[in-house]
Every structure is written in C-alpha cells, then in structure tokens.
Specification:
47% of the residues lie in helices and 18% in strands. It is α/β, with parallel strands linked by helices. The protein has a domain at 58-191: 2-enoyl-CoA Hydratase, Chain A, domain 1 (Alpha-Beta Complex). Helix 2 (38-54) runs parallel beside helix 3 and helix 5 packs across helix 6 (161-167).
C-alpha cells in the first residue's frame, strides 16, 4: 500500500496553537524564537501588556534569536523594564545582536541560560542606500546607536566601556561559561526547577 502524504488540518493546527498560547499565558511565559522584527515585537508587547494587566506576578521569557531590527529590539528591551512585573529571561540556542540587547533588559540575577547557549555581541550594521548626504546621516545614526548599545552592555555586564567597544568591533562570540564570566549571564541552568519563582 503506497504511503499516503500527510496533510495538516489548518483548523486543528490553529486550535493547538491557541491551546498552547493559553497554557503559556496561564504560566506567565513568553517565547521569542527567531528574527526580531516589527510583527514579532507587536505580538510580544501585546502579550507583556496583557500579562501585566492580568497580574503583577513574575513573567518568564525564553529567548532564542539571531537578532534583527535594532529598534524592534529596543521596543522589547524597554517594555521589559516598563511593566511592573519582574521578568526573568532564559537564553537558549543562541542569543545574538538585538536578541542580546533584549536579554540585557533585566538585572543579571534574572538572566539565565541553558548550558549550550551561545551569545553574540557586535556593532550594529547598516543596509542603507541613496544619496551621499543621506548615507552620511545614516552613518552618524549608526555611530550613535553603537555608542548607546555599548553603554547598555557595559552597564549590564559590569565591563569597562572601552573593553566593550573593543569587543564589539567585530563579532564577539561567547559560550555559556564565558558569558557568565563576562557578566552577561547570571546563572547557567539545566532544569526548569532551577528558575526562581
């Protein structure tokens, strides 16, 4: 008998996603998995505001991201400090670029990671085109953005600003242990039981 091709049932998939979303909401848990962009940011901000309106209890955010749009990362970073709920962040897989900026929104003792997490810090990149005068303006903005992000990294890790500037000149990769020594990670965990509740 030929093997039949399995086709997903869209309604069943929607129901499953809704059920998972409800369970995560009840557990006061958010997941960022993938590139940081405007659509994802809107979803995360809406969830943070909804969770905050429901209760001031702690929120856990699981983060796996290669980075993405800096201003979208800024929005999530700022919202994590804006709401009254205490947020703990768990890095997993990789936490890079704008993802690392989000990770640094909470105090070090609320920053966890799983053992195989890798972190990437680097300077923001531009992808602009146009007239020379516009390119000059964009270059100035990137330099301002770089200075601002480096300041956040220095403040949140305890590293001297000069060291952070040097480290982020190129791609700066760290495993979990190195990230803990750097001051990026508060605690490396291997079980959900190790999260503070």
């Amino acid at each position: 008998m030929p093997e039949q091709e399995q086709t997903g049932n869209p309604l069943a998939e929607m129901a499953t996603r809704a059920s998972v979303a409800q369970k995560l909401f009840e557990a006061r848990t958010l997941v960022i998995c993938g590139e940081i962009h405007s659509e994802m940011t809107r979803s995360i901000v809406e969830q943070l505001l909804a969770l905050s309106a429901a209760s001031s209890d702690d929120i856990t955010l699981y983060l796996h991201s290669p980075g993405g749009h800096v201003e979208s990362g800024d929005t999530i970073h700022d919202m994590l400090t804006f709401i009254p709920s205490r947020v703990q962040v768990v890095g997993t897989g990789w936490v890079a670029s704008a993802g690392a900026h989000i990770y640094l929104a909470v105090p070090r003792e609320q920053r966890y990671c799983l053992p195989n997490t890798r972190f990437l810090l680097h300077q923001p990149a531009g992808g602009f085109g146009g007239r020379a005068t516009d390119l000059e303006i964009e270059a100035e903005e990137i330099l301002k953005m770089r200075a601002r992000l480096n300041k956040v990294i220095a403040e949140q890790t305890g590293q001297p600003l000069k060291k952070v500037e040097k480290d982020t000149e190129r791609n700066f990769w760290m495993g979990a242990e190195a990230a803990k020594e750097y001051g990026l990670v508060g605690k490396i965990i291997s079980s959900i039981a190790e999260l503070k509740r």
